[in-house]
Structure formats: structure tokens, C-alpha cells
Amino acid sequence: MNELVEKQAANRSAPQISVRPSRDSDVDAMLSIYRRHIRRGVDDSVDDSGTPEPDDLRDRRKNLRSHRLPHLVAVFGGEVIGYAYVVLFRKRPAYRYTVKHSIYIHHDHVGRGVGRQLMQELIDACAAQGFRQMIGYIDGDNAASLAIHDKLGFRRVGQLPGVAYRYGRWCDTVMVQRSLGAGTTEAPPPLGFGR
Ligand SMILES: CC(C)(COP(=O)(O)OP(=O)(O)OC[C@H]1O[C@@H](n2cnc3c(N)ncnc32)[C@H](O)[C@@H]1OP(=O)(O)O)[C@@H](O)C(=O)NCCC(=O)NCCS
Fold first, then answer.
1. Which residues pair with 98 in a beta bridge?
2. How far is the CA of 72 from the centre of ligand 1 (A)?
């Protein structure tokens, strides 16, 4: 994490990035970003024994598409430098308006506003699809991720002490949540949405 924070401090100028839906041809770049962060121990759920293979990511993308779940990449100079996506929070039908997200920025591009732009576009895309709540699980030591979620309107709704054992120690998970669109102020779209 220290290396990540140092990179963020060094990357002062914001690059001109574009955000678009991911493609199969982006899978290798996304895996490379993910594997690097896993080796640094930032992910809240896996250690390096749980790294997905390219085919896993391709299958996941196809599955997300069929459920209208946004899966986005940030592109700079023709290179994929970050990705963010959502899955359904739970599979049972009652939870079909709630998504759980993940975001990863290439370690050379952290601290330049890429995460903020990509995350905002993910939020907007999920709201446009009619989802109403967005949930994130963040490692309690992940200051960068906690900060970006605070700044984008997520509330810290729970702390799960010692639920992860990674790299030789027990780690807390912080649960964050944000309303999308009308949130809970209106009834949802018709049954069958997002299935
Ligand atoms: C967490 C992550 C997505 C943040 O993306 P980023 O591009 O580095 O963040 P940004 O430069 O867009 O910063 C967003 C905001 O958070 C703040 N922030 C970022 N890192 C911070 C840190 N270490 N401490 C305090 N604030 C921080 C920034 O100041 C910025 O606020 P501002 O827009 O008001 O200036 C990125 O660091 C990353 O991919 N980390 C590894 C993977 C990961 O942890 N994913 C999340 C798993 S839950």
C-alpha cells in the first residue's frame, strides 16, 4: 500500500481519459492490472491463489452483459488503465435492484483522478439501468478506496472485524453503500427487471 500512496502523490496531472464498455480484447489488460494489485495485497477477498484466468473474466463479462450490468474500462493513449464493474448484490429476485461493484486502476496511473472519473461513470451507468443501491466491500486498511468512496457519496454502513485472513493477519472489511436514482423514494420498475 505504501508504494501505491507514493505513486498517487507523484501523479499530479490528470490525464485525458475516456471511459467505455469493456470488450473481450480488454481482458488481458484487465487481468494484468488485477494481478498486480493482488500481489500487493489490496483486494478484500482473495490472495494470489484466487486470481482468475482470462477465460473466467471473458465468461464473467458475457454473463454481466446478459444481465445488463455495466462493465467499464478507462482508456488513456489507447491503453486500458483501469476497469470497474458491478455484479448483482445477491442472486435472489428481491435483490435485483442492488449491485456490488469493484474498481481497479493501473498502478502507474493511481492518484490522477482516473478512479474518480471511472467510478462516477459506473455510478451513472448503474443509475441509468434502473439499479437503486450500490454496495462495496473495502479492506479496512485501504485508505485510497475508502477516500474515493467517501467523496463519491457512499456511506460507511458497516464494519466487519477480522473477517479476512490475508498475508498472515486478520483484516477488517468496511461495507459502503450509496443510493442510485430515486433510491428507496419510489417503487421500482416492473418485475423481471435485470434478469
Ligand atoms: C482505490 C483506487 C480505485 C482509487 O483510484 P485513484 O485513481 O487512485 O483515485 P483518484 O485519483 O481518482 O482519487 C479520488 C479521490 O480520493 C482521494 N484519495 C485517493 N487516494 C487517497 C489516499 N491514499 N488517501 C486519501 N485520499 C485519497 C483523492 O484525493 C481524490 O479526491 P479529490 O477528487 O477530492 O481530490 C485505486 O487506488 C486502486 O485501483 N487501488 C487498488 C485497487 C483497489 O483498492 N480497488 C478498490 C477495492 S474496494
1. 133
2. 17
**Segment holding 85, helix H or strand E:** strand 79-88
**pLDDT at position 52:** 67
Domain 16-136 has CATH 3.30.310.180: no
Q: How many CB atoms lie within 10 A of CB 122?
A: 24
Please say whether the beta carbons of 33 and 83 come within 8 A: yes
Nearest CA among 126, 161, 119 for reference residue 144: 119
* Atom 27 in ligand 1: residue holding the nearest Cα: 144
**pTM for the whole structure:** 0.88
Measure the CA angle with vertex 35, ends 90 and 134; round to 5°: 25
Indicate the DSSP class of residue 38: H
The residue to which cell 458475457 is assigned: 62
Residue nearest atom 24 in ligand 1 by C-alpha distance: 144
Give residue 40's pLDDT. 65
Ligand 1 center–CA 147 separation, angstroms: 6
